[in-house]
Amino acid sequence: MTQTAPESRAVTTSGDGRFASLDPRTGEVVAHHPIHDAKQVTDAVAQARRAANWWQELGFDGRKERLDAWRRLLVKRLDEAAGLISAETGKPAADAKLEMVLVIDHLHWAARNAERVLRKRRVSAGLLMSNQAATLEYLPVGVVGVIGPWNYPAFTPMGSIAYALAAGNTVVFKPSELTPGVGTWLSDTLAEIVPEHPVLSVVTGFGETGAALCRSGVDKLAFTGSTATGKRVMATCAETLTPVLVECGGKDALIVDYDADVALAADAAVWGAMSNAGQTCIGVERVYVHEDVADEFTAHVRKLAVKLRPGGDPGADLGPITMPSQVDIIRGHVQDALDRGAKALVGGVESVRPPFVEPVVLADVPEDSTAITEETFGPTITINRVRDVDEAIRLANAGKYGLGGTIFSKTRGEQLARRLRAGMVSINGVVAFAAIPSLPFGGVGDSGFGRIHGEDGLREFARPQAVARRKFKALLNPMSFTRGGGTVRQLLTIVKLRYGRK
Ligand code: NDP
To answer: Which residue has its alpha carbon closest to ligand 1 atom 12?
Structure first.
């Protein structure tokens, strides 16, 4: 299998079966990595399968000990990890460090809670089966394949990797071709703690390497990336009936109610939209603000957004657009909005200066323009006024995505949150749910399905096993050919008495 770098990507093949990851700030080569073919991927999965038995045998305590040691190592070498994240994505050092802090917190939670969530438990057998002992246990699925994106190259895949490992699985990870170094670093550091077997191995390359992982016979495939690729991954996994978890893009809305703390909401909107240069699946892309507070809110947003400066130097607020082809999409969305009558409050088409994009704030954006309907993934935001929150909720829910959402309201945040068609909501704050390890992360609609993080995230990488054990002879046993003629009749009498009355 010969793979060549897709034109859209900031990578080059070197002709020797390797490709280079580049620093998007400078175009310099960060490192070369192998392009793994289908055979190498299958071999990695076979090795992970052998390791899986050993890892499972360690039990919750043994795995926790190793994962805790890995966590301490990540803390110790946080700067090194952050440096690599910055080099491959271009994001500012402080943001890369923040990403690692979240990784560490999630790893801690997953290791600490796996046994509580997944261990064997007794459940009630019910009246009719009272002669049985019923137990439920969440067992590891075996080998989990993880395919990750480049925008949070440690945090996003670790949302699957940490939880899958804690649940007793081994993992084969295919990082984005833009960030292979971060993936390899994660695998190498865990190997220092777990030298016996490859419990987390990495395969690098392009989309074909990812497709090979889908076909490799892994027991579950956890994908995070764009909706278009998610559909391809699902189709490939369907060939082998490999179960998938699909975490895709979003077009999250932030709603500002008439009673909101407007300054706080503006600060959250600007951070939610512009941090990581807007390359965040749960980033704020749209704002719907109550008309009573719209002028005040917009003024705050402008004041904050104009101060932000993209660049590759240590003092920059935003890094570059990591994936070169995204620049055209960002420019296209801004242009489309302006052509249809939107107002540019900050920046405009001229703000797109590859590889950087300066903040763009657009107002009165037609609801059918791409800046509203498609994921922009740049430091841009749309602000539209609404008459009331009903209109805001209707517009927020109108899109095809349903990942996250944000509500600013002093009195009815929770009530409004329930009406959002989104997997996660922050009230009077932004993206807070992602930093709370006990909360499940995932969306609906074109944002995908399945959950990482939290108890649901642990169970996502486990197979529930239900066991019924006969304790003693049942008074009535209708499930035998030796049952007497009256057995079912007696059973029906019990059912009528027990379930047929109010
Ligand atoms: P892509 O969908 O382009 O790629 C995601 C991963 O899939 C990459 O590792 C990619 O490899 C791999 N891949 C590409 N083609 C195939 C294929 N045919 N079979 C198997 N794997 C394949 O996404 P991006 O990397 O551009 O990431 C950005 C997207 O991720 C955004 O839409 C963003 O919203 C979303 N995202 C979602 C999150 C969530 O949790 N919901 C979190 C973070 C990001 P390669 O890079 O080598 O092409």
So the answer is: 207
pLDDT at 165 over 60: yes
Unique residue bearing structure tokens 């932004």: 430
Query: Is the pLDDT at 12 greater than 70, yes or no?
Result: no
Residues 6+ apart with CB under 8 A from 71: 104, 107, 108, 111
CA 125, CA 230: separation in Å to the nearest integer? 40
| 3-state SS class at 137 | strand
Angle at 30 between CA 215 and CA 355, to 5 degrees: 95
3-state helix vs strand vs coil in the chain, percent to 5: 40, 20, 35
Q: Contact, 364 vs 384, CB < 8 A?
A: yes
Q: Which atom of ligand 1 is nearest to the CA of 447?
A: 41
**Cβ neighbours of residue 52 under 8 Å, at least 6 residues apart?**
140, 142, 143, 169, 170
Around ligand 1, the residues with Cβ closer than 6 Å are: 147-152, 156, 174, 176-177, 206-207, 210-211, 214, 224-226, 229, 232-233, 236, 247-250, 281, 323, 375, 403
For the CA of 249, the closest atom of ligand 1 is 34
Phi, psi dihedral angles at 253 (to 5 degrees): -105, 150
453-494 pLDDT per residue, tens: 999 999 999 999 999 999 999 989 999 999 998 999 999 999
The four Cα atoms 474, 475, 478, 479 give a dihedral, to 10 degrees, of: 10
Ligand 1 pocket, mutate which of 3, 37, 147 (most atoms under 8 A from CB): 147
Cα–Cα distance for residue pair 424/444, rounded to 1 Å: 10
Q: Which of 303, 380, 300, 401 is nearest to 338 (CA)?
A: 380
Q: What is the pLDDT of residue 502?
A: 85
Look at phi and psi of residue 217 and say left if phi exceeds 0, alpha if psi is from -120 to 50, else beta: left
* First-last CA distance in the chain: 67
Q: What's the token pair of residue 369?
A: 């323009």
Neighbours of 399 (CB within 10 A): 22
Q: Is residue 235 very low, low, confident or very high in pLDDT (cuts 50, 70, 90)? A: very high
Indicate if the pLDDT at residue 6 is higher than 70.
Answer: no
| Closest ligand 1 atom, residue 206 Cα | 47
What type of residue is 387? R
Q: Are strands 220-224 and 244-247 parallel, antiparallel or unpaired?
A: parallel
CA distances from 317 to 4, 78, 151, 435 (A): 34, 20, 16, 21
- For the stretch 306-322, pLDDT in tens is 999 999 998 999 999 99
DSSP category for residue 483: -
